[in-house]
Amino acid sequence: MKSKKGGNFERETAKYLSYWWTDGDRDDIIWHTHSSGGRATERLKKGMNTAFQYGDLCPTVRIAYPLFDVFLFELKRGYTTEVDLLAFVDKLDRNKDPLIFQWWNKIEKEREQAGCPYSLLIIKRDRHRRVVMFNYGLYKEMEENGGDWKYSRQAIIKYRGQQLVILLLNEFLECMVQEIVLGMRNDRLGRG
Q: How many Å separate Cα 174 from the centre of its chain?
């Protein structure tokens, strides 16, 4: 069963992203998925795909579809002592990935199943701000499409052949303007 803390975080983040996508006009265009992606997982076992039901968030109305054509969202709340970025360097058990990379591997698998180009892992530890982790390829694509990375607090991590970026969610959203998302979507769908 899902924790109350995690469910509240999903609802708060859905509203936060709804306001961001609509320039503050609406808080209801994004919501949490049915069973946090469980419906899509069960249908996939039967060979059926389920639009917009992978990950933790989904669109509730058509105006949010472009965002979900580009991104799959996974949210994690809490884990204040368990999320340790140094663990990817000094972890004693080399056979088991640190927790944050276990999450990343899970969302990447779901992203592939959903057919999305990019994953966004949003994490909020207790008494900390929301951060987002994503593939360095997205970082470069945003930069090439006018994204301005002038943030002082970002980390670029290389781990087991992957290059990932972590920064504050609000700074990511300031850079990831709607025009960039729409351009990425149109490129993906072949609409130049």
A: 15
